[in-house]
Amino acid sequence: MAQRKTTIDEAWAGDIIGLPDNGTFKIGDTLTEGEMLHFRGLPSFSPEMFKYIENADPMKQKQLAKGIDQLMDEGVAQLFVNQFNGRKIIGTVGQLQFEVIQYRLLNEYNASCRWEPVSLYKACWIESDDAAELDAFKKRKYQFMAKDREGRDVFLADSNYVLQMAQMDFKHIKFHFTSEF
């Protein structure tokens, strides 16, 4: 399989084709001949575990950044950028994903990283029709605010109590536990 490359002008449903790509396409993209399709992609669920990712070799910053971007494109984990300190936080479902990321960064991108634990309970994508309340929330919870890869606001609650209090104090803000809302 995939022993040779040929150029084709036509493909049919079920055909497996490869596309030369420099980052334009992402997993889950759909190609059509112009039809307007309206469907949501796969949702990103709130991770169970969180860690700061640190570059272990400053001379390999570009390799690390490229590796993180491509691994996140594959859906290996989720990336959040803390708005308080600018640090990158990786969110996963389990510990094994951190080990896989570290292994792949080293072996596929020649970049080494180290992990620093961060005590977080839940990532919640937030939205509100009340712009003033949303602004007030983001200012009050600034140290817990992050952006996901799509630039959406994410509240990183460090405990169930903090999340419940935020929901009680800011009743016009919707807290979503998936990125699709």
From TrEMBL:
An example Gene Ontology molecular-function term: GTP binding
Pfam families: RF3_C
Residue span(s) of domain Peptide chain release factor 3 C-terminal: 39-166
UniProt GO cellular component terms: cytosol
The UniProt record lists the keyword Ribosomal protein: no
Localization: Cytoplasm
Gene encoding the protein: prfC_23
Name of the protein: Peptide chain release factor 3
Keyword terms, alphabetized: Cytoplasm, GTP-binding, Nucleotide-binding, Protein biosynthesis
Annotated Gene3D superfamilies: P-loop containing nucleotide triphosphate hydrolases, Peptide chain release factor 3, domain III
